[in-house]
Amino acid sequence: MREKKMSTIAVLGAGPGLGMSVARRFAKEGYAVGLVSRSTDRHPAYLEELSASGVPAVAVAADLRAPGAAADALAEITSALGPIDVVYHGPGAQNLSAPMLGILETQPADIRRAMAETLEPAVEVANLALPTMRSRGSGALVYVSGLSALVPLPFLGPYAPASGALRTYARTLAAASEDGVHVGSLVVGGLIERGDIHRMLTDPATPAPYATLDPDELADAVWRLASGTEDEVVFDVLTQDQTRG
Description:
This protein is 41% helix and 20% strand.
């Protein structure tokens, strides 16, 4: 009897907050884990942790905005771990030190840049992952977008409409998906604990002066979305509301 293949998740956006919480959540379920992030600095510690949990893992350095980077990263994960069953798409902020541009100052070029950093890589990943999933009749793709996809947040400038476009793309893919393939949308409105932005904005010696989100709770939502039990989960820290649909 042929041994059943271990399922594999590709975590596109493997940071210390939500990305690694997703990796741990799926490793707990017995998934092999492929990690993708722009820097290799943290990869040894990530891989050591996942190895201790008893699942195979591989880490790939890639900037998903670069042409062909997503294809190369997914191919490397497939070569090491086998066919990918779940793709989590949650790349972090591109430049944490960049000045914020408000919506009234936003120009067409700013919108094009935000779309190139946000929506275009998401579309590329779908075009790479979904054909194989559809051909075998199983698989999942989960996208993460910000609360500005649902709530007007003028201070986010060009990234507000880009986030809305990403959520709409995910929801439209979900509507077009066939039986056995799931596309989920996770909308995050708040500061995620343990993430890079959280570390930059908070003092480790004192509690954060505002409500935060537990990345492990968000990772549970990613698991539900990948399982197809829900199509979209919204976490809104401003009202402490979680809406599932």
